Amino acid sequence: MSINSVQQCSICFVNVNGNNGYIRHIRQVHVNDRQFGTPCPLCHSKFVFTNLKSFINHFRKHMLHDPFNEEPAPDLCVNHDAIYLDTNDDFVDELIISDHEQYDQLEEIKNFYIKMLLRVREGHILPGVVMKTISLSVSSLLESFSMYLLSKLNINLDNPIPRHVNNDIEKILLEVSKNEESFISSCELYFKYIKPKEIQLPTGNKAYYIPIRDVLMSLFQKKDFYECIKKEKKYISHFHEQDIIYHYRNSEIGRQHPILKIKENTLSLQLYCDDIGVVNPLMGKNAAHKLTTFYFSIDDLPPCYNSSLNFIHLLLLFYRKDFENENNRQILFNQLNKDTECLENDAHELGGFTCSFNSGRCCRYCLIHHKDMKHVYKESEVLIRTTASHDFHVKHIKNVPNDKSLYGVNEKSILSTLSSFNPITCLPPDIMHDILEGVMPKIISSLLHTIVSTRLCTSAQLCCKINSFIYGINDRRNRPSTFKEKDIRDKRVPGKAMEKYCLFLNLPFILIDIVDRIPYWFLYELLRQIWDILYSDYPRKSWLVTLEDLIQEFLQLFQTIFSEQFIPKCHFLLHAARNTAKYGPLKRQMNLRYESKHHLLKKIANRCNNYINLPCTISKRVQLRQCYELMEEYIFKTSGKFHSR
């Protein structure tokens, strides 16, 4: 049995006025939803429509064929005497005042217009000047529509009422779109825009901090956010004291953490720091702007949401050169430390470790020297850093600064004032930088060079195999960069991290006709087994002994066969088994999605084309985009429901 009339939106649960009101609401509010999805409210089918046009066609067919649908069509036979009223009529004035008191339609128009600007401007990352074009175009369209409607209804075009209404609407449009500040003020009023705080630095530059408390408050005000966190934490608790390590909370450090162990209603946050380069296209590389970014994400969200860029939030943005000054670093993190303390009542540099990987003790997990890395294949043969030893090293270099290279520690971490942070336990490895951009390209380039040197095929034939390979539907967007013969000779793999990863996964299929004859192919197979364990969503404690043996065998063979290709990132692999036990699945600690967020910041900088005080421009636009992403009451929209296990 079908439903006669829809009274509530199936996506955002807003009350609607019947079937026609429902269709109008869908077309006005959800037309630009990036993940549109809803079942039909007029039938019992559980099919979810993800295309707006097909859904509206389906819905209208129900309305046409439903004999019980008694919803009257809009009456177009208007009583013209009732419309063409004298403006001096007291009854009209009372009626207008009464209607205005009950329902302010101008406020709704303003709200809808701001929402439309956010969708158009921030959804497509357009320059701010596009607002004036939109406001003028909408005003012209409104005026043309009013004249057409009045002429069809045989109403005098000089009637002052529609003219006054048009003027009021036009005033709203121009007021919102007047300049950037007026638009931001409107977003603050209607959609809780979080304004970046300006931090004046002694060097004369400015940094911009987005209050972490305000962002978290904004998230928790969404109707489905807390419920989603609560369900995920309940799911995580199922793996306590089990063989599976699903989350940081199931790991050794998570179970022993002084705050997580005592307080039940806690939130686990991930902080990420990295540099990005933005180049002014009009001035070339000489006008490169080096910026340092800090992001944070909530680790207690389900992976399907945590991987979305919508839930990676900007925290700090400033010029890279300002971070090199110790006084600036203290000023920059003063406000963050205060906010984090209230919430509680590139990682080497953030932890205070040495940032050079070509000399000294450059591993933040052990005290091995750079020159000894190639000769150590067991973790039991190195001295592991502990919280006690690190505190001693920090204290020693404070008294004797010249001994920094002795321990591989430069200074006390700027985040050490936080009771929940320690550089030894709170800086997990990043398998994207260590493996996808480190070990994997070394193995690929070494094997490709070996194929050519053993004359299994020429470099030209090998490049042709790689470049002409037909990738599957899931790999096409990460198709590797075009290989050149020079890349094989120089033992280099061009492209981004995901392009290198795509090549690594598809290499056996690309070389299918010669794979049985490739010398040292067992190195690829060993690394593939290691990666399958490290990249697992549900690694087991019982796997870690096997993982340690595989890594030991791989490092020893790789160093013996391709010793010139051995880099410090190969040594970092030595600690992977212990780090999985310490931090949980390393896949969840990977920085790949944060790197994708960089792309958004670069795109904003290039589209805005404003390179004066770049951190200010980018931080404001990033917050406006966050405003656009969080404007709905339900932020986990999939047919009006959030993900459930």
What attributes characterize this protein structure?
about 50% helix, globular, C2H2-type domain-containing protein, five-stranded antiparallel sheet, 4 domains, two-stranded antiparallel sheet, about 5% strand, Znf_C2H2_type
What does this structure look like?
By secondary structure, the protein is α+β, with helices and mostly antiparallel strands. It has 4 domains: 6-63, no CATH class; 106-191, no CATH class; 198-352 and 413-428 and 611-630, no CATH class; 432-588, no CATH class. Helices cover 50% and strands 7% of the residues. It has 28 helices and 7 strands. The strands form 2 sheets. It has a 5-stranded antiparallel β-sheet with strand order 3-4-7-6-5, with helices on both faces. A two-stranded antiparallel sheet has the order 1-2. It is globular. The two termini are 30 Å apart.
Task: Reconstruct the topology from this structure.
Blueprint: H1 18-29, E1 38-39, E2 48-49, H2 52-65, H3 80-83, H4 90-102, H5 105-122, H6 130-152, H7 160-177, H8 180-191, E3 197-200, E4 206-209, H9 212-220, H10 225-237, H11 252-256, H12 258-262, E5 269-279, E6 288-298, H13 303-306, E7 312-319, H14 320-323, H15 326-344, H16 347-351, H17 387-399, H18 404-407, H19 431-453, H20 459-468, H21 485-489, H22 497-510, H23 521-534, H24 544-561, H25 568-572, H26 576-583, H27 592-608, H28 614-629
Antiparallel strand pairs: 1-2, 3-4, 4-7, 5-6, 6-7
Helix pairs in contact: 5-7, 5-28, 6-7, 19-22, 19-23, 23-24, 24-26, 27-28
Domain C2H2-type: 9-30
InterPro entries: Znf_C2H2_type
Protein name: C2H2-type domain-containing protein
